[in-house]
TrEMBL record:
It is an enzyme of class 4 (lyase). Pfam families: AAL_decarboxy. The keyword Lyase applies. GO terms for biological process: acetoin biosynthetic process. This is Alpha-acetolactate decarboxylase. GO terms for molecular function: acetolactate decarboxylase activity. It catalyses: (2S)-2-acetolactate + H(+) = (R)-acetoin + CO2. Keywords: Acetoin biosynthesis, Decarboxylase, Lyase.
Amino acid sequence: MKNSNVLYQHGTLALLVPGLLDGTLTMKELLEHGDTGIGTGEGLDGELIILDGVPYQVDSAGNVNIVDDSFTLPFANSHFAAYNEMMDVEDIKRDELQELIDKKAASANTFYSVVIKGTFKNIKTRAVKKSSKPYDTLAKTAEAQSIFERDTVEGTLLSYYSPQVFDGAAVAGFHSHFMSDAHDFGGHILDFESVSGNVVFQCFDSLLQHLPIDNPAYKHHDFSSDDILGSIHKAEG
């Protein structure tokens, strides 16, 4: 049964910090928990965005690929889309948009998702180059990222909002990925100047946290000396 009130999360952002980058969930398994989502591949292999059940990967060369069921991920979110209308916006700046979404959502201590479809100006995204074992830390691996920019592009922003109290398991605030309508540009959003388009909203009453208990590296790692929050905020900002 498809439950649109549940946000499914495999892994945590914290496990990426020391370089626990093994793919521990297949795309087939992830899609059993949602038709919409974001994530990254084994070794931080690009940026994933799932729209209407189709898993797109933006790799470090800027290519947009549709990945198969066997593609593996160390971290991902997914859910079944059941969005409600929030608002239309016209040439609104990113900071102003986030403040407006915060106000209208009135859900600072719950998980929710926002989708924005429209025209984005001066958008900047990134994708990380896939690394191999032995993996470096998140901070080191994230240095090998490619930056992509477009002056104007039509597309879809998919964002998950996580409450401050869950910072570390996820990144507190908004975590956003993008895919152009032409399927030729996307990635993890670093910034955009403004957007004109439609905003929809979906709130979750449950977080289903799935951990990679069959992965020895995860089971036996001592996180006590890792700068979890500092590394996450630097890499995901």
